[in-house]
Amino acid sequence: MDQLLQNSEPVQHVDAPGTPPHEHPGMEGMSGDMGSMPGHDMSAMGGGAATTPHEHMAMTADPSVVRLVLGLALGLALGLLLWARLALRTPVAAETTAHTNVLDWPVIGGLLRSRAFNYLLTVPTLIIFLFIVLAGLLGQQDTTNPATLLTWILWWPAVIFSFMILGRIWCVACPFGYVGDLAQRVFSFGLKPPQILKNMWWRLGLFLTLTWLTTIWNLYGWPWGTAWLALTLTMGAVTLGVIFQKRTFCRYVCPVGGVFGLYAMASPVRIAVKDKNICQRNCEDKDCAQACRWFEFAPTLERSTDCNLCLDCARACPHDNVILKGQFLGSELAEFQPHRKSLDEATAVAAVLGVSLFQTVVMLNAWPQWESTVSGWLHIPSGPILYTVTFLTLGLVVPAALVAAIAYLSCSREERRGDIFRAFRAYAYIFLPLGLALHAAHNFHHLFGEGGAMWAGLRRALASYTGWAALAPPEGAGLVSALGPNTLFLMQCVALLGGLYLAFWVGVTVLRRMAGQPGKALATAMPVLLFAVVYTVMNIFILAAPMAHRH
Ligand code: SF4
Ligand code: SF4
Predict the structure, then answer these.
(1) Looking at residue 56, what DSSP letter applies?
(2) Residue bearing the CA closest to ligand 1, atom 2
(3) b/e sequence 526-545, b meaning 16+ C-beta within 10 Å
(4) I need a labelling partner for 168 at 20 to 30 A (CA). Which of 70, 122, 187, 524 fits?
(5) Is 316 in the pocket of ligand 2 (CB under 6 A)?
(6) What is the distance between the alpha carbons of residues 319 and 198, in angstroms, rounded to a whole number?
(7) By alpha-carbon position, which residue is closest to atom 2 of ligand 2?
(8) Cβ atoms within 10 A of the Cβ of 126, count?
(9) Distance from the CA of 291 to the center of ligand 1, in angstroms?
(10) Is the CB of 294 under 6 A from ligand 2?
(11) Which pLDDT value is given to residue 414?
């Protein structure tokens, strides 16, 4: 690990793992097809002749800062373990019914209740979406194209952060879903979504495919491919909107909102009703259910995973019974009790842990060396096949087996008479804050570490498109990160330690509930709590190591 931390050579753009910068794994056999694609310049895809090689200094925090953070992390972990020991001995506190209704807040409440609020979110994103598609299809095919810069440095991290902070509100602003809505208004068969779509497997499979493709095709540096990805998702929303009712694509298929929808369970706001008795006794028409385009029913909504906070239910309710409830971060993760037998969501949580870690590790300067070692072990040459094998093994199979095993070990003896799958389903949500924290920390690197490159690239492109030279950035702009490595590292560690705290809080609540009586969970809680500490400390080490930029 010392060797890893000391490797602070200047780094270049990172392309797909296992390839030199600006070479695309998997493109060898595709060059004929790709060459015929409109707007596609193979020189930009292959040897990088058309790209601008930006050299960045490696983003490495000072060793003294790393040591300080590690000390704080171990101190926090010890404090949390002592707190968990105490908390697992005490009975569960009675539920409080007090809540905040954000819709009652002056100004903000009025704005949220207004139908115009949704358009305030949708219109700007639709304009940016059109710009990205046009710039991606028609602009220069290199890493300075605003289509790739806006998509991968701004959009992707912003979507992830918005899910954590404000549930699925991004889905109100999302241009894919909105274009699907427009198409549906023109014509739709209006079929009910089939039962086969109603699980997380589709969304998980498509999320893994999307993550795999972004690397295999190096979409971070391929504007044409990025534009077509946006168009493909939009066509998916349009097609399903024309065949099925309401937002079938967003609810059951979307690879972006589907898995990240689980993050909405950590959000501090959710939809609820003031009084369920009013719904049962005084409301015949159930207008909220008719208004909801996500097939939800406000009085029975258990969590925010499949609600985009569009507030159509609140506007439709004739009894003003729907509220936007303020809650503690992560309360839904602690309170949710899965009823279904499927392992889909537990597997998705494990994949969040694994994929976040894997996608961070492949950006390390040390990765090519590790990859060639794995290549030697497996006798598979570096490239797309080796990447696919390691991605699926380390991103999905190993984390799913590990989370299931730790969940099983954290069950009491009586519970173990059940089965490992039951433990996996019930305990998986404890692990989500850890994956969510690493995902946030990873994207701090893109948003803040590469944000300067994005603004410089955007100004350069606008100057070139408009012919207005004053818009161009100064020479060398964007090469240096807006934030110093120590500040960025500290921000990343705050996210990781926040995730550790949340995992303990959710863990203690779930373990106490599952054990039935106070004190019973104490003996078995250690595997899950120690895993949380080990995963967090390991991630601090990884983020302290030199890491390449994509742009
Ligand atoms: S419309 Fe209002 S009162 Fe009727 S079921 Fe929905 S939330 Fe309850
Ligand atoms: S439950 Fe309400 S806020 Fe949530 S998606 Fe349905 S209509 Fe929108």
Answers:
(1) B
(2) 317
(3) ebbbebbbebbbebbebbbb
(4) 187
(5) no
(6) 31
(7) 313
(8) 17
(9) 11
(10) yes
(11) 64
Q: How far apart are CA 453 and CA 460, in angstroms?
A: 10
The pLDDT value recorded for residue 11 is 40
CA of 521 to the centre of ligand 2 (A): 37
How far does the centroid of ligand 1 lie from the alpha carbon of residue 319, in Å?
7
* 308 in contact with ligand 2, CB cutoff 6 A: yes
* Ligand 1 geometric centre to CA of 241 (Å): 26
Ligand 2 atom nearest the C-alpha of 301 is 1
pTM of this prediction? Answer: 0.85
Q: Which residues of the chain have pLDDT under 50?
A: 1-57
Among residues 323, 377, 300, 348, the alpha carbon closest in space to that of 103 is found at 323
Structure tokens at 351: 């994949």
Burial bucket for residue 327 (CB in 10 Å: 0-12, 13-18, 19+): middle
* CA Rg value for the chain: 24
- The two tokens of residue 115 are 């139908």
Tokens of 470: 């004053």
Q: How far apart are CA 170 and CA 309, in angstroms?
A: 9
Question: Is residue 286 lining ligand 1, measured as CB closer than 6 Å?
Answer: yes
Ligand 1 centroid, distance to 339 Cα (angstroms): 24
For tokens 């809080």, the residue is: 505
Q: Are 263 and 356 in contact (CB under 8 A)?
A: no
Sign of the Cα torsion 79, 82, 83, 84 reads: positive
Task: Determine the pLDDT at residue 478.
Answer: 66
Nearest C-alpha neighbor of 180 from the set 248, 244, 249, 241: 241
Read off the amino acid at residue 99: H
Cα dihedral 119, 125, 126, 127 sign: positive
Sign of CA dihedral 429, 434, 437, 438: negative
